[in-house]
Structure formats: C-alpha cells, structure tokens
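REQUEST ID: PR-0412
SUBMITTED BY: lab tech R.K.
PRIORITY: routine
TASK: structure prediction, single protein chain
INPUT:
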Amino acid sequence: MTTNRLFAALLVALAGFAPAAHAGLIGTTITLEYDYIGVPSTVEAIPVTDGIEVTCTGGGTGNAAVCAFLTAGTQTLDIRDSSIVYAYSGPAAAFDPVQFSGFRFLDLAPGFAIANVALSTDIAGLDMSRIAFSTISVTMNMSGLPVGPGSSGFALQLLPVPEPSAALLMLCGLGGLALRLRRRV
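STATUS: complete
OUTPUT:
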C-alpha cells in the first residue's frame, strides 16, 4: 500500500469517528404534567424554544395552565437541548405535602435514549431518590419541599447511554492497519 493510499485510508477511518449530530429538545414539543394529588392536575403540550418556556408570576397567573397551581412567587421552566431548569424567586413557600406533588416531563426526544439524569439543586431535601426516569420521560416528586426565600431551583441534565471511547476505537483501527502493513512487508 502506498503512503498516499495509507494516508487516505487513515482519513476515511478518522472521519468515521466524528461525533454524531445531536438533535436536542429545542424545536420539539414535550408534554408537561403537574400533579399535586396523585393524578394530573394539568397536562399540556409545551413547544421547546430557545428561551424560557413557562413563566408563572404568582397568584395563578402566567403563560401556561400549570401556573394555576404554581401560585407562589415567580416560577419558570426552561427546557434546553438536553436539560430542564426550574427556578423559583419569591418568599418562602413549599410544594404541597401530599403523596405526590410534582412534575412529569413526557415525550422527551433529545436525540438519544435517556440513560441517566444528573441533578444540581439548592432545594433542601431534593435528591435523586425523588426522581424517576425512562428513556423518554422524567418524573420529579417535589412533595413538601421548600423553596425560597429569595431564589432556588434545580437543573436536570439528561444523559445518553455512554458510547465507547472514540480514541480507543481509533487506536484499534490503527493497530489493525499496522498489522496489515506488517504482513505485507
């Protein structure tokens, strides 16, 4: 094999290791359910845009049906390419302390099957034990959790199934090319 053909084969092999395109949630429509008594209180389709999708300004007002139940302070939901961010700003308040009070994010299609969820939060008591997920949904039980005074919130990062390391695959390919060249010599 000539040096030029070897170089061309190497470029073709490396091109195969380019990261896959990530579609993300922006441009999709998710289903948002909010429950506070164990059955959906609201179910609505939320178009995901580049910005905050839901803004509840207190007293039952805002741009989504869920605002009828998120009545304290200002609460927002920002769905991004592969994350969901909730923010609360206002006086001390708490989610209803019933069996289930929380969010269900359904029909999530970030361009990959959800294999895990990472949580970052400053809400006391909110941890991974309150989160359930499937390949297309995330459920958060906020029952009895405090928010405020001031601001508080959470961010959920949707994580795909880990892919094998591209570098390891490339090394295996280069090793195979080296063996092939060695046999020809």
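NOTES: Residues 29-159 form one domain.
REVIEWED BY: pending
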